[in-house]
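Final report, closing paragraph on structural work. Over the funding period we assembled a curated collection of sequence-structure pairs, and we close with a single example.
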Amino acid sequence: SIEGTKLSKRHGDMSVRAFRQKGTISDALVNFVALLGWNPGSHDYQEIFVIDKLIEKFSLETINKSPAIVDSKKFGWFGNVHLKRLIAENPQKVIEEAAPFYKKFNWDPMPSNEFLLKVFDIIKDTKSNYAELCEGSKILVKPPECHEVKEDLFPKINDNMRLFLNDLYKHLTNI
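Its predicted structure, as stored:
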């Protein structure tokens, strides 16, 4: 859908498969879509639902009649909230769901699940889906070697910074 317009089947990439391919967290998608056309009521309003609570609270009486308007920033916020919750409550699910995204990097050696979860926990506050989470983890899982850093690409990185980054890499690989 085009940002800020009414939801329409004629605009944008709105299939569930497309969302899955982009790394969308399924709980966030269900939560977001439910609130596009439904209001849980004003007496105990909340926005974040896991599927069991959503089923429990859902009522046909509080469905909105007006067309929904998509807000991608809000959708990203839902993704971030559910991602942080999953990392804390169900880290194994995060590893499984993120696997298609981090395995495409062909890390050699492949980091342990424990290490990946530590990295994910460090960067989770700015990510809203599995693809972003894995993309953001690349620099911490496999930082570039000093000889891979080209002077013209990073002119402000001095020798001390290179030494620091190498030490950080060695430290992180030993966690």
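The CA atoms of residues 96 and 160 lie 38 Å apart. Residues 72-89 form the longest helix (18 residues). We thank the funder for supporting this effort.
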